[in-house]
Amino acid sequence: MQVYLVGGAVRDRLLGREAKERDWVVVGGTAEELRAAGYRPVGRDFPVFLHPQTNEEYALARRERKTGPGYRGFVTEFSPDITLEEDLLRRDLTINAIAQTEDGTLIDPHGGQADIAARVLRHVSPAFSEDPVRILRLARFAARFAPLGFTVHPDTLALARQMVAAGEANALVPERVWQETERALGEQRPDVFFQVLRDCGALAVVFPEVDRLFGVPQPPQWHPEVDTGVHVLLCLQRAAELEAPVTVRFAVLAHDLGKGVTPQADWPRHIMHESRGLPLIDALCSRLKVPGAHRELARLTCQQHTNVHRALQLRPETVLKLLEESDAFRRAERFSEMLLACQCDAQGRTGLEEKPYPQRGFLEKARAAAATAQLSSDVLSALSGTAVAAAIRSRRLELIRALEKPSVA
Ligand code: ATP
Ligand code: MG
């Protein structure tokens, strides 16, 4: 039985990055032997074991054999006669298909080191097309490694495009699409994930609401980049630069979905896109089973982003209404996240990336000030229930009125 380090740990060491986990492959062994040695089985689909001390993952070498068309149209075989080379052959990308022996020797039959040096994401073999999850992984690795200069090899992109054309992407299960998307949103270039999906045609299949934004114009005086899809990608890039949490990044992705359904006659204006976006967000979130917190923040951002952008021009009454409609007093943290998403929107415009966004600080101050509204016990005891609410409201309004507005940039 031989054991090799494989996958991300080998790749990341060659890239000079710290690996977050180590994956091992076991050649010439059986499940029984591993169990007898104290390894604990975890995989439901494949024999994967946890090391009794380190808890690291050990997988039996496997071989995949195509049995029919489409997703899951292959069987996976495990037996002690499967070689390391066979195991590496069924892996997705060459940079992920390098193995390392105990003494540090690299086994690299698919040119992974050369592709690391050339900064190329390339499929290991035509078997790549047997599993559409690999398209999502490809896009996710492109998002992660774009800052290091990695791009997708044209042949791999062409293969992904063929897979999509053959309908393979339709078979992706929603949970997996979301799982990969959530991880991709957290990478340094989440925009690249969506760009790669678009380049191979998968975006139209898994995120039709986002795909539709490409080719939709916006007024050039506000949006020098014009194209709505390009704008959303710039916003995502800004969100990553600002180290926004994933919920915010998802809200950024979804904030302009309504622009995809503006009647063409109204282009390049998008008068009602805030309300038109809501059913699209709901459809996307239901389909992919996006968690409720992400959906809520996305809905709120979609509804309120134009109001937030106008914050410095709003009358105090309207500022209070914005706070109330956003449930900002009870959900202060979500409100802050929404403001951050709005900043990403404002700065996700060509040439305006560094333009200050005082609206965010102003509305934070307005929320904090209004939240301190209190009534003295004398006043309270003299008022009925509904009158208390009205009195609090007018106190909040006074506090907002008293705020100094930053000068309009
Ligand atoms: P990370 O740093 O995200 O853990 P990783 O490359 O280690 O990256 P894992 O998801 O941990 O990715 O998978 C470990 C290895 O298993 C990969 O490097 C790859 O070789 C292989 N692999 C995982 N999923 C697939 C897949 N769907 N198709 C082919 N190979 C895969
Ligand atoms: Mg890994």
Please give a structural write-up:
The chain has 409 residues and is α+β, with helices and mostly antiparallel strands. 49% of the residues lie in helices and 9% in strands. The strands form 4 sheets. It has a 5-stranded mixed sheet. A two-stranded antiparallel sheet has the order 6-7. Strands 8-9 form a two-stranded antiparallel sheet. Helix 5 links the parallel strand 10 and strand 11. It starts with a strand and ends in an 8-residue tail after the last helix. It binds adenosine-5'-triphosphate and magnesium ion (MG). Magnesium ion binds next to loops.
Please name the defining characteristics of this protein.
binds adenosine-5'-triphosphate; two-stranded antiparallel ribbon; 11 strands; five-stranded mixed sheet; single chain; binds magnesium ion; 49% helix; alpha+beta; 409 residues; elongated
Rg over CA atoms, rounded to whole Å, is 26 Å
Low-confidence stretches: none
Number of discrete helical segments: 19
Q: Note the beta-strand portion.
A: 5-15%
What is the element layout, followed by pairings?
Layout lengths: L1 E5 L1 H7 L8 E5 L3 H6 L3 E2 L6 E3 L6 E4 L1 E5 L7 E5 L5 H6 L9 E2 L5 E2 L4 H7 L1 E2 L11 H13 L5 E2 L1 H12 L8 H12 L4 H10 L2 H5 L1 H4 L16 H14 L4 H9 L18 H16 L3 H18 L6 H10 L6 H16 L10 H14 L5 H6 L2 H17 L8
Parallel strand pairs: 2-5, 10-11
Antiparallel strand pairs: 1-2, 3-4, 4-5, 6-7, 8-9
The structure holds adenosine-5'-triphosphate and magnesium ion.
Summarize the structure.
The protein has 409 residues and is α+β, with helices and mostly antiparallel strands.
